[in-house]
Amino acid sequence: MADLKNIPDNDPDLKLARQYGKVLTGEQEIQDIQDPMFRMLVQARDAANESEADIPLGSADSSWQQIERNINGDSETDRAVIRPISSAKRWYWAAAAVVLIAFGSLFLLRHAVDPAPQLLAESGSAISVVELADGSSVTLRPNSRLYEVTSTDHLQSYSLNGEALFEVESNQDRTFSVEAGPGRVVVTGTRFNLSDRDERSTIHLLEGSVIFETADMTRSISLNAGEGAAIRSDYTLDEPFTFEPEEITGWTESRLIFRDRPVAEIVSELEFHYNITIRVDDESEQIALGGSVALETPEQSLQDLGTVLGGEFIQVDDQTYQFRPLP
Fold this sequence. Notes:
31% of the residues lie in helices and 33% in strands. By secondary structure, the chain is α+β, with helices and mostly antiparallel strands. It folds into 3 domains: 110 residues, no CATH class; 128 residues, Jelly Rolls, CATH 2.60.120; 72 residues, Phage tail protein beta-alpha-beta fold (3-Layer(bab) Sandwich). The strands form 3 sheets. Strands 1, 2, 3, 4, 5, 6, 7, 8, 9, 10, 11, 12 and 13 form a 13-stranded mixed β-sheet that branches. A hairpin with a 2-residue loop joins strand 8 and strand 9. Helix 2 runs antiparallel to helix 4.
Protein backbone atom coordinates (compact mmCIF):
# COMPACT_ATOMS: atom_id res chain seq x y z
CA MET A 1 0.00 0.00 0.00
CA ALA A 2 1.28 3.46 -0.87
CA ASP A 3 2.49 5.68 1.94
CA LEU A 4 -0.04 8.48 2.52
CA LYS A 5 2.86 10.92 2.60
CA ASN A 6 3.41 10.16 -1.09
CA ILE A 7 -0.18 10.99 -2.02
CA PRO A 8 -0.71 14.69 -2.80
CA ASP A 9 -3.48 16.52 -0.98
CA ASN A 10 -5.22 17.24 -4.30
CA ASP A 11 -5.41 13.55 -5.32
CA PRO A 12 -9.07 13.01 -6.48
CA ASP A 13 -9.46 9.69 -4.62
CA LEU A 14 -8.09 11.15 -1.40
CA LYS A 15 -10.47 14.12 -1.69
CA LEU A 16 -13.41 11.75 -2.26
CA ALA A 17 -12.43 9.61 0.73
CA ARG A 18 -12.29 12.69 2.94
CA GLN A 19 -15.70 13.84 1.71
CA TYR A 20 -17.26 10.45 2.45
CA GLY A 21 -15.63 10.50 5.88
CA LYS A 22 -17.51 13.74 6.58
CA VAL A 23 -20.73 12.04 5.49
CA LEU A 24 -20.15 9.24 8.00
CA THR A 25 -19.54 11.74 10.80
CA GLY A 26 -22.57 13.86 9.87
CA GLU A 27 -20.49 16.90 8.82
CA GLN A 28 -21.70 16.72 5.21
CA GLU A 29 -24.76 15.46 3.34
CA ILE A 30 -24.18 12.72 0.78
CA GLN A 31 -26.15 14.78 -1.77
CA ASP A 32 -23.42 17.43 -1.59
CA ILE A 33 -20.80 15.07 -3.02
CA GLN A 34 -20.56 15.78 -6.74
CA ASP A 35 -18.82 12.54 -7.68
CA PRO A 36 -20.83 10.71 -10.44
CA MET A 37 -20.69 7.38 -8.60
CA PHE A 38 -22.16 8.81 -5.44
CA ARG A 39 -24.85 10.61 -7.44
CA MET A 40 -25.82 7.27 -9.01
CA LEU A 41 -26.11 5.61 -5.60
CA VAL A 42 -28.22 8.47 -4.25
CA GLN A 43 -30.52 8.26 -7.29
CA ALA A 44 -30.88 4.50 -6.77
CA ARG A 45 -31.76 5.01 -3.13
CA ASP A 46 -34.32 7.72 -3.93
CA ALA A 47 -35.88 5.62 -6.68
CA ALA A 48 -36.17 2.67 -4.30
CA ASN A 49 -37.91 4.78 -1.70
CA GLU A 50 -40.38 6.13 -4.26
CA SER A 51 -41.14 2.66 -5.66
CA GLU A 52 -41.72 1.25 -2.19
CA ALA A 53 -44.13 4.05 -1.42
CA ASP A 54 -46.15 3.26 -4.57
CA ILE A 55 -46.72 -0.42 -3.76
CA PRO A 56 -50.43 -0.84 -2.73
CA LEU A 57 -51.00 -2.64 0.53
CA GLY A 58 -54.18 -4.71 0.88
CA SER A 59 -55.74 -6.03 4.09
CA ALA A 60 -54.88 -9.52 5.35
CA ASP A 61 -58.50 -10.72 4.82
CA SER A 62 -58.66 -9.65 1.18
CA SER A 63 -55.30 -11.28 0.47
CA TRP A 64 -56.45 -14.67 1.90
CA GLN A 65 -59.73 -14.46 0.00
CA GLN A 66 -57.82 -14.04 -3.25
CA ILE A 67 -55.64 -17.04 -2.42
CA GLU A 68 -58.74 -19.15 -1.66
CA ARG A 69 -60.35 -18.21 -4.99
CA ASN A 70 -57.22 -19.29 -6.85
CA ILE A 71 -57.03 -22.64 -5.03
CA ASN A 72 -60.76 -23.55 -5.34
CA GLY A 73 -61.26 -22.40 -8.91
CA ASP A 74 -63.80 -24.44 -10.99
CA SER A 75 -61.62 -24.66 -14.09
CA GLU A 76 -58.62 -26.92 -14.41
CA THR A 77 -56.76 -23.88 -15.57
CA ASP A 78 -57.69 -21.99 -12.40
CA ARG A 79 -54.66 -22.96 -10.44
CA ALA A 80 -52.61 -20.93 -8.05
CA VAL A 81 -49.62 -19.49 -9.83
CA ILE A 82 -46.64 -19.04 -7.53
CA ARG A 83 -44.23 -16.30 -8.49
CA PRO A 84 -41.13 -15.15 -6.63
CA ILE A 85 -41.86 -12.05 -4.61
CA SER A 86 -39.11 -9.43 -4.41
CA SER A 87 -38.87 -5.91 -3.16
CA ALA A 88 -38.18 -3.11 -5.63
CA LYS A 89 -35.99 -1.58 -3.00
CA ARG A 90 -33.97 -4.79 -2.79
CA TRP A 91 -33.40 -4.75 -6.56
CA TYR A 92 -32.34 -1.12 -6.60
CA TRP A 93 -29.86 -1.64 -3.82
CA ALA A 94 -28.58 -4.81 -5.47
CA ALA A 95 -27.91 -2.79 -8.60
CA ALA A 96 -26.28 -0.10 -6.52
CA ALA A 97 -24.10 -2.70 -4.84
CA VAL A 98 -22.99 -4.03 -8.24
CA VAL A 99 -22.10 -0.49 -9.30
CA LEU A 100 -20.19 0.07 -6.07
CA ILE A 101 -18.29 -3.20 -6.51
CA ALA A 102 -17.45 -2.21 -10.08
CA PHE A 103 -16.27 1.16 -8.85
CA GLY A 104 -14.06 -0.48 -6.24
CA SER A 105 -12.63 -2.88 -8.83
CA LEU A 106 -11.81 -0.02 -11.19
CA PHE A 107 -10.26 1.90 -8.30
CA LEU A 108 -8.00 -1.03 -7.40
CA LEU A 109 -7.16 -1.71 -11.06
CA ARG A 110 -6.26 1.91 -11.69
CA HIS A 111 -3.99 2.05 -8.67
CA ALA A 112 -2.40 -1.25 -9.63
CA VAL A 113 -1.65 0.05 -13.14
CA ASP A 114 -0.86 3.64 -12.13
CA PRO A 115 1.28 3.72 -8.99
CA ALA A 116 0.73 6.46 -6.44
CA PRO A 117 2.46 9.78 -7.18
CA GLN A 118 6.01 9.83 -5.88
CA LEU A 119 7.29 12.75 -3.85
CA LEU A 120 10.15 14.33 -5.81
CA ALA A 121 10.95 17.31 -3.62
CA GLU A 122 9.76 19.15 -0.54
CA SER A 123 11.03 22.67 0.04
CA GLY A 124 10.49 22.98 3.79
CA SER A 125 11.27 26.48 5.03
CA ALA A 126 13.66 27.40 2.18
CA ILE A 127 13.47 27.74 -1.59
CA SER A 128 14.40 24.50 -3.34
CA VAL A 129 15.38 23.91 -7.00
CA VAL A 130 14.61 20.58 -8.68
CA GLU A 131 16.22 19.46 -11.94
CA LEU A 132 14.00 17.09 -13.92
CA ALA A 133 15.23 14.27 -16.16
CA ASP A 134 14.50 16.19 -19.40
CA GLY A 135 16.52 19.24 -18.29
CA SER A 136 13.52 21.24 -17.08
CA SER A 137 13.80 22.91 -13.69
CA VAL A 138 11.30 23.63 -10.93
CA THR A 139 11.88 26.23 -8.24
CA LEU A 140 9.74 25.40 -5.22
CA ARG A 141 8.58 28.17 -2.93
CA PRO A 142 8.90 27.35 0.79
CA ASN A 143 6.28 24.96 2.18
CA SER A 144 5.64 23.36 -1.22
CA ARG A 145 5.79 19.80 -2.59
CA LEU A 146 6.28 18.38 -6.08
CA TYR A 147 5.11 14.86 -6.99
CA GLU A 148 5.88 12.80 -10.08
CA VAL A 149 2.79 11.09 -11.48
CA THR A 150 4.06 9.76 -14.84
CA SER A 151 7.44 9.93 -16.57
CA THR A 152 7.91 8.46 -20.05
CA ASP A 153 9.49 9.63 -23.32
CA HIS A 154 6.18 11.07 -24.48
CA LEU A 155 4.47 12.08 -21.23
CA GLN A 156 5.64 13.81 -18.08
CA SER A 157 2.99 14.63 -15.51
CA TYR A 158 3.38 16.11 -12.05
CA SER A 159 1.29 17.29 -9.12
CA LEU A 160 2.03 20.41 -7.08
CA ASN A 161 1.04 21.41 -3.55
CA GLY A 162 2.00 25.02 -2.84
CA GLU A 163 3.72 27.22 -5.41
CA ALA A 164 6.55 26.83 -7.92
CA LEU A 165 8.22 28.42 -10.93
CA PHE A 166 8.52 25.98 -13.85
CA GLU A 167 11.06 26.32 -16.67
CA VAL A 168 10.14 23.59 -19.12
CA GLU A 169 12.52 22.51 -21.89
CA SER A 170 10.90 22.64 -25.32
CA ASN A 171 10.06 19.22 -26.75
CA GLN A 172 7.30 18.84 -29.34
CA ASP A 173 7.37 15.05 -29.01
CA ARG A 174 6.21 14.93 -25.39
CA THR A 175 3.47 16.43 -23.27
CA PHE A 176 4.36 18.08 -19.98
CA SER A 177 1.53 18.63 -17.50
CA VAL A 178 1.20 19.78 -13.90
CA GLU A 179 -1.91 19.52 -11.73
CA ALA A 180 -2.37 21.96 -8.86
CA GLY A 181 -5.61 21.73 -6.92
CA PRO A 182 -8.58 22.23 -9.26
CA GLY A 183 -6.36 23.30 -12.21
CA ARG A 184 -4.06 21.60 -14.69
CA VAL A 185 -1.45 23.05 -17.06
CA VAL A 186 -0.49 21.32 -20.34
CA VAL A 187 2.62 22.53 -22.21
CA THR A 188 5.39 21.43 -24.58
CA GLY A 189 7.95 24.03 -23.51
CA THR A 190 7.47 27.27 -21.57
CA ARG A 191 8.06 29.19 -18.31
CA PHE A 192 5.27 29.75 -15.81
CA ASN A 193 4.49 30.22 -12.12
CA LEU A 194 1.81 27.90 -10.73
CA SER A 195 0.22 27.83 -7.31
CA ASP A 196 -2.32 25.74 -5.40
CA ARG A 197 -3.41 28.04 -2.58
CA ASP A 198 -6.57 29.40 -0.97
CA GLU A 199 -8.74 26.73 -2.69
CA ARG A 200 -7.76 27.84 -6.17
CA SER A 201 -5.15 27.06 -8.81
CA THR A 202 -3.48 30.13 -10.33
CA ILE A 203 -1.07 30.36 -13.26
CA HIS A 204 1.07 33.27 -14.43
CA LEU A 205 2.57 32.57 -17.86
CA LEU A 206 5.98 34.17 -18.37
CA GLU A 207 7.01 32.66 -21.71
CA GLY A 208 5.44 30.57 -24.48
CA SER A 209 1.85 29.37 -24.46
CA VAL A 210 -0.12 26.84 -22.43
CA ILE A 211 -3.51 25.22 -22.07
CA PHE A 212 -4.92 25.79 -18.60
CA GLU A 213 -7.79 23.45 -17.79
CA THR A 214 -9.87 22.24 -14.88
CA ALA A 215 -8.72 19.02 -13.23
CA ASP A 216 -11.89 17.28 -14.48
CA MET A 217 -11.06 18.54 -18.02
CA THR A 218 -14.49 20.11 -18.58
CA ARG A 219 -13.23 23.69 -19.12
CA SER A 220 -10.01 25.07 -20.57
CA ILE A 221 -8.40 28.24 -21.85
CA SER A 222 -5.32 28.98 -24.00
CA LEU A 223 -2.94 31.54 -22.54
CA ASN A 224 -0.05 33.49 -24.03
CA ALA A 225 2.96 35.09 -22.35
CA GLY A 226 1.97 37.85 -19.95
CA GLU A 227 -1.44 36.34 -19.18
CA GLY A 228 -2.68 34.65 -16.05
CA ALA A 229 -5.82 32.81 -14.96
CA ALA A 230 -7.32 31.06 -11.93
CA ILE A 231 -9.54 28.02 -11.38
CA ARG A 232 -11.60 27.80 -8.20
CA SER A 233 -12.34 24.69 -6.17
CA ASP A 234 -15.78 24.38 -7.83
CA TYR A 235 -14.01 24.32 -11.23
CA THR A 236 -15.05 27.87 -12.11
CA LEU A 237 -12.56 29.27 -14.61
CA ASP A 238 -11.94 33.00 -14.08
CA GLU A 239 -11.31 35.44 -16.91
CA PRO A 240 -7.63 35.80 -17.86
CA PHE A 241 -5.69 38.82 -16.60
CA THR A 242 -2.33 40.53 -17.13
CA PHE A 243 0.41 40.96 -14.54
CA GLU A 244 3.88 42.33 -13.83
CA PRO A 245 6.38 39.42 -13.99
CA GLU A 246 8.66 40.73 -11.23
CA GLU A 247 5.75 40.76 -8.79
CA ILE A 248 5.16 37.08 -9.49
CA THR A 249 8.73 35.79 -9.48
CA GLY A 250 10.21 38.09 -6.82
CA TRP A 251 10.00 35.30 -4.23
CA THR A 252 12.62 33.30 -6.21
CA GLU A 253 15.10 36.05 -5.24
CA SER A 254 13.78 36.20 -1.66
CA ARG A 255 11.80 39.39 -2.16
CA LEU A 256 8.07 40.07 -2.10
CA ILE A 257 7.31 42.83 -4.62
CA PHE A 258 3.91 44.50 -4.78
CA ARG A 259 2.15 47.46 -6.36
CA ASP A 260 -1.13 48.80 -4.96
CA ARG A 261 -1.90 45.56 -3.17
CA PRO A 262 -4.06 45.46 -0.03
CA VAL A 263 -2.28 44.58 3.18
CA ALA A 264 -4.55 41.53 3.44
CA GLU A 265 -2.98 40.08 0.28
CA ILE A 266 0.56 40.90 1.43
CA VAL A 267 -0.16 39.20 4.76
CA SER A 268 -1.48 36.13 2.92
CA GLU A 269 1.78 35.92 0.93
CA LEU A 270 3.87 36.10 4.11
CA GLU A 271 1.69 33.54 5.89
CA PHE A 272 2.21 31.04 3.10
CA HIS A 273 5.90 31.76 2.62
CA TYR A 274 6.75 31.29 6.31
CA ASN A 275 3.91 28.93 7.30
CA ILE A 276 2.76 31.30 10.05
CA THR A 277 -0.43 33.09 11.12
CA ILE A 278 -0.58 36.90 11.04
CA ARG A 279 -3.41 38.85 12.68
CA VAL A 280 -4.17 42.36 11.42
CA ASP A 281 -7.15 44.59 12.20
CA ASP A 282 -9.76 45.07 9.46
CA GLU A 283 -8.91 48.73 8.86
CA SER A 284 -5.21 48.03 8.30
CA GLU A 285 -6.00 45.10 5.98
CA GLN A 286 -7.65 47.46 3.50
CA ILE A 287 -4.61 49.75 3.11
CA ALA A 288 -3.00 49.48 -0.35
CA LEU A 289 0.81 49.43 -0.43
CA GLY A 290 3.55 49.50 -3.03
CA GLY A 291 7.16 48.43 -2.56
CA SER A 292 9.00 45.30 -1.51
CA VAL A 293 9.78 43.22 1.56
CA ALA A 294 12.82 41.00 2.05
CA LEU A 295 11.91 37.33 2.49
CA GLU A 296 14.70 36.31 4.84
CA THR A 297 13.05 35.70 8.20
CA PRO A 298 9.51 36.27 9.51
CA GLU A 299 10.79 38.79 12.03
CA GLN A 300 12.61 40.88 9.42
CA SER A 301 9.70 40.81 6.94
CA LEU A 302 7.17 41.78 9.60
CA GLN A 303 9.41 44.49 10.97
CA ASP A 304 9.56 46.10 7.51
CA LEU A 305 5.80 45.79 7.02
CA GLY A 306 5.06 47.08 10.52
CA THR A 307 7.20 50.18 9.94
CA VAL A 308 5.21 51.06 6.81
CA LEU A 309 1.90 50.53 8.65
CA GLY A 310 2.98 52.63 11.60
CA GLY A 311 3.05 49.83 14.13
CA GLU A 312 4.75 46.59 15.05
CA PHE A 313 4.11 42.87 14.99
CA ILE A 314 4.26 41.07 18.32
CA GLN A 315 4.91 37.32 18.40
CA VAL A 316 2.19 35.75 20.56
CA ASP A 317 3.27 32.12 20.12
CA ASP A 318 5.61 30.00 17.98
CA GLN A 319 3.68 30.48 14.75
CA THR A 320 1.43 33.53 15.36
CA TYR A 321 2.07 37.27 15.10
CA GLN A 322 -0.27 40.13 16.05
CA PHE A 323 -0.13 43.64 14.56
CA ARG A 324 -0.29 46.48 17.08
CA PRO A 325 -0.54 50.11 15.90
CA LEU A 326 1.75 52.51 17.72
CA PRO A 327 0.04 55.34 19.63
